[in-house]
């Protein structure tokens, strides 16, 4: 049943096997986390619509505000390799009692590439919460908004 759902435009819940595989990939990426300041390791695994997988981890910096989240690093890796059409991203951390939740900046970064793809928030026991980008960032601003009708300023040159 889930197998059929998966074929509809590449959307719908991932099969259990594929989700487990992506969780393993996200956990492996988490092991590479460079987080000497927060000691908060995060990894993610991104599945493109043509079934490529990209992974990434958070990378902190002595200049704290330059630290980069795992999700953004992962998406940037995919985009830099020519992939912009995404099916799902799985996020893992060391939190055992709460599903890891992407920060606001990462939600906006995901939204740039569509609203209908999926984000799996996980716990260390392997359980996950499936959400869409639209659910994580309601009433969002995206690339389409830049092309919408705007007020024309009189002195606009
Ligand atoms: Zn983030």
UniProtKB/TrEMBL annotation:
Gene Ontology biological process terms, A to Z: nucleobase-containing small molecule metabolic process; pyrimidine-containing compound metabolic process
Family annotation (Gene3D superfamilies): Cytidine Deaminase, domain 2
Chain sites annotated for binding substrate: 58-64
Keywords assigned by UniProt, alphabetized: Hydrolase, Metal-binding, Zinc
Coiled coil (UniProt feature): none
Active site: 71
Pfam families, alphabetized: dCMP_cyt_deam_1 (PF00383)
Top-rank taxon: Eukaryota
Reactions that this protein is recorded to catalyse: 2'-deoxycytidine + H2O + H(+) = 2'-deoxyuridine + NH4(+); cytidine + H2O + H(+) = uridine + NH4(+)
UniProt EC number: 3.5.4.5
GO molecular function, one term: cytidine deaminase activity
Cofactor: Zn(2+)
Amino-acid positions noted as binding Zn(2+) in the UniProt annotation, renumbered to this chain: 69, 103, 106
Residues covered by the CMP/dCMP-type deaminase domain: 17-144
Root EC class: hydrolase
GO cellular component: cytosol
Function recorded in the entry: This enzyme scavenges exogenous and endogenous cytidine and 2'-deoxycytidine for UMP synthesis.
Protein family membership: Belongs to the cytidine and deoxycytidylate deaminase family.
Name of protein: Cytidine deaminase
Source species of the chain: Neogobius melanostomus
Lineage: Eukaryota, Metazoa, Chordata, Craniata, Vertebrata
